[in-house]
Specification:
20 strands
Length: 380
Amino acid sequence: MDPRARFHLGKPLLYWLPVAAVLALIGWSKTINLLLLLGYLMLALCGVNTVLAWRMVRRVAGQRRDSPPVFAGERFVHTVDVRNPTRRGAAVRVADEADGQVGDWFLAPLPGGESAVLRVPWSFPKRGRYAVGPLVVESEYPFGLVRWARDLQPATGICVLPAVGVVGVESLRRWLIRAGGGEGRTRRPARRPTPGLGDVRGVRPYRMGDSPRDIHWKTTARRNQLVVREYDQTDPLNLVLILDPWLPAGAAPEQRAALEWALAVAVSIGWAWAVADEPGDLTLAIPGTPPEVHTARASTAFVRQAFAALADVAGSEAVPTVPLSAVRAGAMRTARLVVSSRPNSPLAAALLSGGLPTASVDPSAAPRWYRPAVPSPAAG
C-alpha cells in the first residue's frame, strides 16, 4: 500500500456501520437470515468501497505548472496537469489551496491513458510569500463510505510582488533627465551621433533632453517651432533603480505605508520600463549585506524575477549602503533614481557625493508620473 495514501472515514459511514451491526445482530438473535445477510452485505460494501477508492487514487498522477512571481491584485491562472497512465478510468477529486484561494476539480471519470488540464483564477491582495498546500487527489468511489487521499505534489509557495501602478514612461524619462543631476541642475545624457540611430520615421516637437543634432532646421523655420527628427530606432535611456527601504523600529502605520509606497513605485517603474516602446537596460539595487544587484535588458520576465526580492523586504533603520561600482553604468545615456520611504535619503546623498548624478523620490513629494494601483474588489 502507498505510504503517502491516507484513509478517512466518510460521514455516511457513521450511520452505515450502526445500521449494519443492528441488522446483523437482530438477524443472528432472531434467526432471521434475510436481516443477517443484509447486515453482512452492508459490511462487505464498506470493504469494496475501501479497495476501489484506494485503486482510484493510485491511478492518477499530476503536478502544478510553474508559476512566475505575480503582482498583488493580479489575476493569474493557476494550472494543474493531471493524467491517468493506466488502462482503466478513475473517478477522483483534485484539490489545491493557498491562503483562501482554492482549486477544486471533480473528474468522473478520467479515462485510462487520458490527461486533463485543470485551471482556476487566483489573486492575492498583498505582497509576500504565500504557502500553497500539497496537491491532493482523493476518492470516495463508489459509495462515499470511506475516502482515500494521496499527495501528488508537496507543499510549495507563490511569490507575490507589490501591486503595479501606472507610470507615464515619457513623463518619467523627461523628469529623470531634468532631475538626474540633483540639486536643481539639468542633466542631458549624451546621445550617439545621428548616424546609426536608424531610419528617419518623421518629425516631432522638441523635448527637453533632445540632441541639437536631431533638429530639423527646415521644418523648424517653416513652423517657427523647434522640431526634431524621430527615428525608428533610438538610443534608449538606461535606468539604475536603487531602493532605500527605511523603516524604524516600532514604526507607525504611516511609516509602514511609506515603505509599501516605495516598493510599489519601484516595481511599477520597472514594469513600465520593460513594456515601453524602447526599453533600455534596467538595474535594480537593493541595499544589504551584501547588496543585491540585478542588471539586464528590461523585459517583463526580468522584472518578475529580479524584483522578486521585494516580496520579502521588511525594511530597516540601518543606514543603507550600495557600492558605487554596483550602480556605475558603463553607458553614458543612463539615469539613476533612488526610491526611498523617507525624505532626504542618505543613500541618494552618498551617490551624489560620489560623483554619480542621481534623482530621488519619496512619499513626501509624490511624482505626477505615478498613480498607485487601484485595489481590485476580487482580490483575495
